[in-house]
């Protein structure tokens, strides 16, 4: 249960809101690099943290993320032309560079200074890995670039996708922290999904549906350990890290690539889910990449030309009751990603957390909300930089491991939970 | 096939439709909060001063076996609070009593991760859900979230 005022505090991310200001302390995934594939390619409309923006890539390969609307008459620059190092409005030809500076007003004299007085809001947009990241906070507080391992390994070792989720970011994130649903909602995928199946850990998962949970703090957020019985005297641990504000990693399975998510608010009723898969020590196999593109693993199959999943709310998520009856899927919805999204969207755009009935296995969610609230208040009241801004907090991993019963996962997995270039992840 | 009513399909998950959700009072958890050592007892005493629903607070070492059994009779969750000095035997006795009655067990261990490693090991077998935190306020936070 969460009081209505705290629910509001944590779910509203527009400009000037406390949690909106929190998000504006971080570099956030804003586009896939594939959305701006070449110099002078078409611009892309972007809505993030309730701000309407336009992204483009100029003639020299610089990325720009600026106010979507022309300063002149307020038309959308999406209709504009990307040409000669700028984005030119289709209406009267006003032209802007990647910093939002107006560089040409055709109706004014050529030597007029007027254009210098016109500047649109602009945010830095940079490529790290397959993601374009933006920073929407105060320029003087701009942090170092992200160092998440999935974005730093060579490109042949990583794959990223994205999907539109029609719910507030927080209930989506909470699904990533709550691993207790995996043995139920995703049980079908553990047996059949090409990016999951075959791992010894799956057997532990399916043989013990009542895991014990352990929550421990990390510098950037939390580690949530789920333990199940393994062989005599041993536990099978699956450890999920959360880095503030909204990055989580799923514990790996066998030698499959390891995956995770970054939930980014579009507005208070929608979010983008950036999903990645990578392997720390080898290139992804062609069949693995094909499976990811086809929406297996934690990726979605999207309507061609969009980032909207085929299994969306307008089509009842293509509910397949026969597959549900046969046990191929637990909920009748195809794919891990949309199994999660369908249930999280069914809560409503912003779930009323005053009406929920949490149990003690929700401790990870309870602690995450508390950490978020404290960080929001400390930033608002004292200007304290929140956890997860420092790029050293990004150098974490998830892990799956069998340990003697008396060992602490935090102590035993210190190395396993730290990203180490060229070192394989710890997986069962 | 197009649905006849918005409420007959997944499109009903709108903010507007939320007002048709059935609203009724939600009962809180009958939580037993048990301090396992002297420092934890101080925390539990402080938290107990706040207004709670059905939550009941005890120093575990002051509870006889029969008193514990009586208190557990109508409880549905037992939350053990510990610091570095956690009494593992006490935790085991509480956990055994809870298992017999089908009562969920949870543990909150207060202190720095390294300092409380022994307490974590002691409680691990007995608490289905365990949280290590250096923030005393987490005790109240968890109880509030559970409607204790």
Describe, in plain words, how this protein is organized in 3D.
The complex is a heterodimer of chains A (428) and B (148). Chain A contains 12 helices and 19 strands. By secondary structure, chain A is of the alpha+beta class. In chain A, the strands form 4 sheets. In chain A, strands 12, 13, 14, 15, 16, 17, 18 and 19 form an 8-stranded antiparallel beta sheet that branches. In chain A, a hairpin with a 3-residue loop joins β13 and β14. The longest helix of chain A has 20 residues. Chain A is globular. The model of chain A has no long low-confidence stretch (mean pLDDT 96). In chain B, 33% of the residues lie in helices and 18% in strands. Chain B is built from 5 helices and 5 strands; from the N terminus they run βαβαβαβαβα. In chain B, β3, α3 and β4 form a beta-alpha-beta unit. Chain B starts with 30 loop residues before the first strand and ends with a helix. Classes of the chains: A alpha+beta (428), B alpha/beta (148). At the A-B interface, β13, α10 and α11 of A face β4, α4, β5 and α5 of B. β13 of chain A pairs parallel with β5 of chain B.
